[in-house]
Amino acid sequence: MTTDEEILLSADGMTTMIDRIFCAAGADNQEANAIATNLVAANLSGHDSHGVVRVPRYLSWVKAETINFGRSMEIVLDNDTFALTDGNNGFGQMIGREAVELGLQKAEKHGAAIVGLRRSGHLGRIGHWAEIACARGIVSVHFVNVAQSMLVAPFGGAERRISTAPVTIGIANPNGDDFILDFATSQVAEGKVLVAARGGKPPPEGALIDGNGGPTQDPFSLYGALEPGEVPDPRNGPGALLTMGGHKGSGLALACELLAGALTGSGTTGPGRATHNGMLSIYLKPEALDDGHGFGKAVDDYIQFVRAARPADLNQPVMIPGDPERRARENRLKYGLPLSRGAWESILDAGTEWGLDRDNLSNMALVSK
Predict the structure, then answer these.
(1) Residues of the chain whose pLDDT is less than 70?
(2) What are the tens digits of pLDDT across the range 58-109?
(3) What is the pLDDT of residue 1?
(4) Does residue 148 form part of some domain?
(5) I need a surface site. Which of 110, 217, 229, 242 has the fewest CB within 10 A?
(6) Confidence at residue 182, expressed as pLDDT on a 0 to 100 scale
(7) With contact defined as beta carbons under 8 Å apart, do 49 and 192 qualify?
(8) CB 165, CB 258: distance < 8 Å
(9) What secondary structure does DSSP assign to 55-114, as a single string?
């Protein structure tokens, strides 16, 4: 049995199991369920990097008191269309929903809103928040940074200076599938390297450099050598992630740092251990800008026009952002969530550290061995 062996997990069972773990760690039922549901939803969407593999890290942050249960968002500045909020280092699965709900209510009432969020715990897959906005018929744009999470080398650099800095754009399509563009400005999200370190497939070529600035596919260039049972910390390795798109991705990452970090007061990234997210979000109600030109029809018509393009590979139809996630959900709800044995064992280890029975946890979620 190897750590890269793949097992299948029940989405419902995995949600129950993670809920149980976070309740044991001190979360109330509502918060534990929000965390569990959010993480499993990331796996269902095909984004394993933002899913259940993060459970041990979240719990290590709880122990270190860099993230806290039971915190609520505080409104620092507020008017009809602007708000600045503080997450008080609470779990992003709760804080993020509060911040997004505030922005949606303002946009629904006034046509547009800008919400700055600072000092939130990890917000998870940012596309999730854009999906919530689209479900309400609202267009949204999100810039995110990760303070004190220096993981990415700027263009031309051989050492870290910026975070993975995600960007997300959600455009509601009232007549069909929504457009959900969601990506880290690094070549890959750090969580994908974490999956590799837990026995998953290696990072793609061109995503990582070692301590000398040379290319590598070794995930431990980001984490350093690990002791048995140690939770990987991406600050400990000598290497760095690279930005996507060369200088273009690097510039976009810097913009995220300045918009989500400097403008919100959350702080740009740099040395330190107390990781938190900053997010600047823009919300637009399409009806406020539609003078009769038919926004909804134009969105759906163009999406269908793009999808109808002749594919370069006849076995791979042209897709829009959001399609891979929709297909992953359909497939994984049917067949189960794939997870490497190493990642699975690390989650069970985390649960037992909080006094839970390993076999009982395993039986909640395991579909096949």
Answers:
(1) 1-4, 368-369
(2) 999 999 999 999 999 999 999 999 999 999 999 999 999 999 999 999 999 9
(3) 42
(4) yes
(5) 229
(6) 97
(7) yes
(8) no
(9) HHHHHHHHHHTSSBTT---EEEEE-SSEEEEE-TTB-HHHHHHHHHHHHHHHHHHHSEEE
- In the sheet with 139-147, reading across from the earlier edge strand, the strands are 74-78, 82-86, 112-120, 276-284, 139-147, 166-171, 179-184
Give the sign of the dihedral formed by CA 250, CA 252, CA 256, CA 262: positive
Task: State both tokens at 23.
Answer: 């309740």
Q: Which helix (H) or strand (E) holds 281?
A: strand 276-284
Per-residue model confidence as pLDDT tens digits over 211-224: 999 999 999 999 99
CATH number at residue 113: 3.30.1370.60
Question: Hey, how many other C-beta atoms are within 10 angstroms of the C-beta on 303?
Answer: 20
* Residue 135: C-alpha distances to residues 150, 244, 338 (Å): 34, 29, 27
Domain that holds residue 38: 6-67+336-368
The pLDDT of residue 126 is 98
